[in-house]
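During the reporting period the student researcher (J.K.) took over the structure-prediction task from the postdoctoral fellow and processed the backlog of single-chain submissions. One of the processed entries is reproduced below for the supervisory committee.
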Amino acid sequence: MSVLLIEPFYGGSHKQLMDLLQEELQEDCVLCTLPAKKWHWKARTSALYFMQTVPTSSNYRILFASSVLNLPELAALRPDLGKLKKVLYFHENQLAYPVQKCQERDFQYGYNQILSWFMPEHKLARLEKVIGVKRNGDSYQLEGLPGQQESRAVMKTSDAHLESGLCEPQPGLCTTQHEGLPSPPAAPVQAEAPESTNPCQGEDKQCLTFNLSNILSGLDYQQRPLHIAWPHRWEHDKDPETFFKVLMKLKEQDLPFHVSVLGETFSEIPDIFSEAREVLGSSVLHWGYLPSKDDYFRALCMADVVVSTAKHEFFGVAMIEAVHCGCYPLCPKALVYPEIFPAEYLYSTPEQLLKRLQNFCKRPDIVRKHLYKGETAGFSWAALGSKFRSLLAAEPREDL
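J.K. obtained the following structure tokens:
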């Protein structure tokens, strides 16, 4: 139990990473989590909650957490944890996260990240050599986005740990479903599967049962319409507006295509989803979150093209997974994508995305015969496992 894993937002890629580390480290770690709900509340208050619930142990050597946790607060509230070697993973940059409404940004979340990322002089000197931190008077200027490099070093997947929804809860999780800050439970309880996020459930309208082999039976492979996948969270930072407007134009032009809109939903769903579902009609093969990772992988393997329209992305697990499953990627020529994908898979404007998809709708055989020209093997656990084990070594090193 030398590694303490803490995740205040235990869902999606956050959960995926923690589950992978827990499985690989096995009995050498303990995982403490909170459900993937009410993100802002977790960012503000989870340190106080974990202060009460993380078991005390003399065996801890390392604390590994995501930046949803306010690490300085937890270290102050629990001095025993403050003495540990700490590894903090940033899933996103809250100072650059796109706002949904034209209003003043709440800087508390970015401020939390800055406090959690503060490092002493000798470590900053090391960073200057490793990731290009430049001194500017008494401050430091970051060259590029260092978080992107850490993202790719952390958000790596093995075939068994792709972003496919929630796995079965692991024994020994220090997890509760409380949304506020209640008194600590008498004993840790296991995480429960989240409520269904398929927006069709509970409604009168018929939902598509996920059985693509039946839907597509009788059609020759090369004669099937182009199948487009969008495997992202149903939230504004993934820019579903742009994606659906492009697909609506394809529909207006009577171009043949199918679409699978996958990904997890939360309490607020952008209005464009209901509008698009109505307009796209019979072009939709699947609509909604797939809790089964086998169904999720099957959807990606059946798709021809995977599209991202994201406005904020540090790595893009879902895109790498889709490419691993054989999809042709189309990504913005921005954010982290040019660092991962060759130029032919990038577009600069929605008009360029539309043109690419128009051509693919007319000639789906182009993408079906295409062999991806990039590399994904470097993102596997086989390639990165030894680096993680070194990072999570029990003895702290001055250069970490």
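The committee noted the following: The longest helix spans residues 39-53.
J.K. will present the remaining backlog at the next meeting.
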